[in-house]
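INFO batch 0412 | record 1 of 1 | parsing
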Amino acid sequence: MKKSLMTTLIAVSLSHYAIANETGTIITDSGLELTPLLETGIKHDNNIFSQPKGSEVSSNILTIDPSIKVLSTDGLNYWALDAKVRSGFYTKDLGDGSDDDYVDLELEMTRHQELGEKHRFDINANINWTSEPRGKGLTEGTAEEINEPVRYAEQLIGGMYEYGSESSVGKVAVMGRFVNRDHKNFREFTQYRDTESLLVGTQLKYDTQNATTWLVEVTHDAIRYDILEQDGRSRDSDDLRGLVGVEWQATALTSGSVKVGYQDKKFFDTRNEFSGLSWEASVKWEPLTYSSLEFETSNAAIEPRVEGDFIEQTRYDLTWDHDWNDFMTTRFGIEFLQEDYSGNDLAGDVLIRDDETFTYSFLMNYDITNSTTFSLFADVVDKDSTNVDLLHDKKTVGVNFTFTL
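INFO prediction complete | emitting tokens
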């Protein structure tokens, strides 16, 4: 919910246009392009419940993730369907009847339609059945109190209509997005996090005709919770954001976008509210055709999964992608996440919690054959918090194989 709908739709469009070039795509007599994949591997997690030092539980995890992509194109118009199963099976038996295995399903449909030179629209719909590991999200710091992951279903439907030809100086777009989340187990506490969100917005673009586009974006997100908290206070809020920014591709080496503006989050009940600076930025530097650096950062007030009225979340992310040859690529990444929790109780006392999380990641892909890729990966998480029960380190290493036709 942090990214704008426009950004999401553009990213989806670009990813689907690339499908036709992937190894293993089948083209049927009717013109459908089918791309089946199977990813499977094993990883070792030294702290599966994200517990403080001295309380860690480790396990090997076998993952099996089959997927299929379906694409139909007609000139600039297309529709696409992605279906993916994500499953994980833990080798650790705690002997207490607990079960951390999961089988999740993700379905996504996208549609892009050009209605003449000046009119176009995109539709994006997702249905996900997802598991949240013990120790994350709603059960952070309390993994030992439940015996399986928290499970929920999430539905999203969004759309964007844009007016203006590709060569015109100005363009205007209107957008909308509806998200619904329903939790399926441990209803005694998950019922308070069932939510609906309806976002509407508009975007104006001005093309300088010199590889630079200025834009103004305004969105309103109505966030509603199905059931009141036990203290009787509502979490319902209205979130208004206004951003001004620029997108550019000034040289063959650099491209990016920067949007800066104001966010105003107001609650229906007596809670701490947020009014302040918000931003989204992404800059990619590609000095060589086989090597690139990308920096991303954002700041916004987001919904908390557990405590507080809102989280002011600031993210900095740097990645380096390098193609060593035709067969091997690597990615190094480092992310810093600053999360400031804010809220108050019925007596008006302010609740403050500060988290800082560093995540270091490494991925190597090696093409064994045209249809088989071997991957080696490692992730290191170092979390600091003013809540000492949430301090933890986490290391995950593993191998993966991806099979195509």
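INFO post-check: The longest strand covers residues 350-369.
INFO record closed
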